[in-house]
Amino acid sequence: MSRGYQALAVDGSAVLAGMNAAKTVEEFQRYQAIHLRVNEGLDVGSIARITGLAQSTIHNLHSRCRVEGLDAARTKDKGGRYRSYLSVAEEKELLTHAEAEARRGGILEVSKIHRALEEKVGGEVALMTTYRMLHRNGWRKIAPRPRHPKADEAAQEAFKKTGPHSSKRQSKKPQP
């Protein structure tokens, strides 16, 4: 059997201060739902109509507010690394060994970094995870450029016409 509509032991002025300090609409609505219950004494149906929140959300908010206090009204930031093998600091530490070789001008193979990551994690890791880790830490593929930045195309064309091999070109006609 239900215990009925339980009272919230929250300071009404603190709720108003939270409403004024709210940074997002969602946070304001949550403080407003608590304010309407504590200061105005409204029921859940009325609070839902005023705030636009679902009744279940209001019930959950009030229940959490009884346990946690007014901190329950603060919204948490969305996003983050919820499913990561390593922390950001551990990733940087793993890549410092490869960075030393890269600074010497050596060619780095992703397969070596991938194996090191799998050893650190202690299991199999998808190759794409390694590529994402490299991208997240500012690594990029450096490929040779197609032409030198100081190349003079006119000089190259002139060299093709007057160079040492230009007079030795063989004709494409068969010799009799």
| Rg (CA only) | 34 Å
Helix run count: 8
Which sheet architecture does the biggest sheet show? none
Order of helices and strands: HHHHHHHH
* Number of separate strands: 0
Structural class: mainly alpha
If you average the pLDDT, what whole number results?
A: 84
Stretches with pLDDT under 50, minimum 5 residues: none
Please render the helix and strand layout as text.
Elements: H1 12-21, H2 25-38, H3 44-51, H4 55-68, H5 88-103, H6 110-121, H7 127-136, H8 153-162
Helix pairs in contact: 1-2, 2-3
Overview of this structure, please?
It is built from eight helices and no strands. With 176 residues, the chain is an all-alpha fold. The radius of gyration is 34 Å and the shape is elongated. Among the domains are: 12-73; 88-136, no CATH class. Helix 1 (12-21) packs antiparallel against helix 2 (25-38).
Structure at a glance:
The chain has 176 residues and is mostly helical. It is built from 8 helices and no strands.
Question: Notable features of this structure?
Answer:
176 residues; mainly alpha; 0% strand
